[in-house]
């Protein structure tokens, strides 16, 4: 069932009438500094959302993810799930947004938490990723309820923790508690900033591992009496440069990953630490002369839906075994830290087809289908919740995420809210 022209016009006018509210809501959310790490002000932003949505008739649950990574009395992992029941039974559409934002970093010309409106753009950390999307989904839901009060089904809106650090204290925890089962929720839209005319079907896979090379400590003036673990790690990096990185560049995918450079397999060397630990900033002395007996490297491997996770791991161990065959006394350990399999929702899925039609109606152009180079919380909805009918769709320019002077365009939020509201009208129609 498609949305009637009359309903679409009413929704458009209702959302336009709420433009100032959309701006104010986005500004309020940005001005709550929910920095992760360590996970600040999660309760504050959930209480703000709770108060807002209760006034609109939503029932609200506040859920703390006890025992998840990072959860503590000082930095509790709070989540908020709001639900609005329609007049008739039907399916549930869930809008999920993460509330955490990354570190501010250097290079800002705007106050990172000032939420300044300038030339039709709201600036601040999290404006694009993804408080603008959260605000747009709230306005869309409220406008839809006002225009179509007799709808069938239910609407859920969640604000969840820790997406920027894996989502284990947020969507993963909620999925384990049954919030994303196909029996409870039938359609999920995650308003990540993939641009207002794009539908993100999923993401590449990720495998993180820590590699440690071992040596033997000795006096730095007599390194021949020891064994330098850093030099061993240097040989590992050299082997990766010569064999692994060229091989990864040859692997290509049919997934429509953006940007285009991510349509190949990639690996980032996230960090290398060897020898003595760094001293505190107020320490003014010199290091002691020691041969390092340990060196650790963390690798971040992003892989394609065409690849098998076992082959991904084997490529790394093959590098290490090649080095072992060339270097005397080479010893290593490898520890898996994190894995996420690739996921991609079918274009024929109901939520995909519905949002695609809404984009065409609102913007007069065909939707572009993309896949994210990195993971986001769809991985937990798919893997734990077993819910496949899930996409990312929201306002904002992907390349602005985590950058200085991050912003969200007001017009983009308005148009995305129209798409979301029109999608609700199609997915939750009033019975004939």
Automatic annotation (TrEMBL):
Domain (Peptidase M20 dimerisation): residue spans on this chain: 202-326
GO MF term list: hydrolase activity; metal ion binding
InterPro entries on file: ArgE/DapE, Bact_exopeptidase_dim_dom, Peptidase_M20, Peptidase_M20_dimer, Peptidase_M20A
Keyword field contains Ion transport: no
Superkingdom in the source lineage: Bacteria
Record carries keyword Hydrolase: yes
Keywords: Cobalt, Hydrolase, Metal-binding, Zinc
NCBIfam families, per database record: DapE-ArgE, PRK13013.1
Protein name: Acetylornithine deacetylase/succinyl-diaminopimelate desuccinylase family protein
Organism encoding this protein: Halocynthiibacter styelae
